[in-house]
Design a protein that fits this description.
The protein is built from 12 helices and 3 strands; from the N terminus they run αββααβααααααααα. It is mostly helical and 232 residues long. A 3-stranded mixed beta sheet has the order 2-1-3.
Length: 232
């Protein structure tokens, strides 16, 4: 063997046996494929804060198959997820700006975050999305739509109350957004108040009675919901 080869540095030097991996900040990464893009991020929040991923990551790989997400050649494919929605979630999971402010996240991005946090059971980030969206202010139609879609009954009740007590009736466009059945039931509540004594009409009780089927959809656990909001 030549002297030059003997003196050549090792390509992969051995790790000093006295050096240990830090318990908190030696993070594993995972590679996701969303639509036609790859994302490489720490696994930490996915494995620690998502009940869905915490279970998924513990499943053994198939025979002689690499673990999904281990590298760019074997990404963890998120089927049916939009790239823009995933990017919005990563903004709160792994913010790149220092200092970071939630004010930089738009309302539409919070909707994306709420949707994925609900689907993947990120309870902490679901609560955060609910809090931030409520702070930004929401119109009644959005409260009805999002409250029913993502299981937030307080939003649904509050939105319905606003729609049946305001001076202007539902528009065709609003009815299309919240769904024909819900819109008809809200018209029934408004019609009852007109035919009865409006000042004494118990809107809240009729919302519970007439919209009981819609409220059944809002079934997620109480811890993930907002605090009961005043309807007035």
């Amino acid at each position: 063997m030549s002297t030059s080869m003997q003196n050549a540095p090792e390509t992969h030097p051995r790790v000093d046996a006295t050096i240990s991996k830090d318990n908190m900040y030696f993070l594993e990464h995972v590679v996701f494929q969303v639509e036609n893009s790859l994302f490489k991020v720490p696994r930490h929040h996915f494995s620690e804060h998502s009940a869905v991923f915490a279970t998924t990551f513990t499943l053994p790989p198939g025979n002689d198959k690499p673990v999904e997400g281990c590298n760019e050649n074997y990404p963890f494919k998120l089927q049916g997820v939009k790239k823009a929605d995933f990017q919005a979630l990563l903004k709160v999971l792994y913010p790149l700006q220092i200092p970071f402010s939630y004010d930089s996240i738009s309302f539409d991005e919070w909707v994306s975050i709420l949707g994925l946090a609900t689907m993947w059971e990120f309870s902490v980030f679901r609560k955060l999305a609910i809090k931030e969206m409520a702070a930004k202010g929401m119109d009644p139609v959005s409260k009805v739509m999002l409250g029913q879609r993502y299981g937030i009954p307080d939003w649904f009740r509050s939105g319905c109350y606003s729609l049946v007590t305001r001076a202007v009736a539902l528009t065709v466009g609003e009815a299309e957004k919240i769904g024909l059945v819900t819109a008809i039931r809200l018209y029934q509540i408004r019609d009852g108040s007109v035919n009865g004594r409006r000042q004494l009409y118990d809107y809240a009780s009729y919302i519970e009675k007439v919209l009981k089927e819609e409220l059944k959809v809002c079934h997620l656990d109480e811890d993930a919901q907002t605090q009961p909001a005043a309807l007035l």
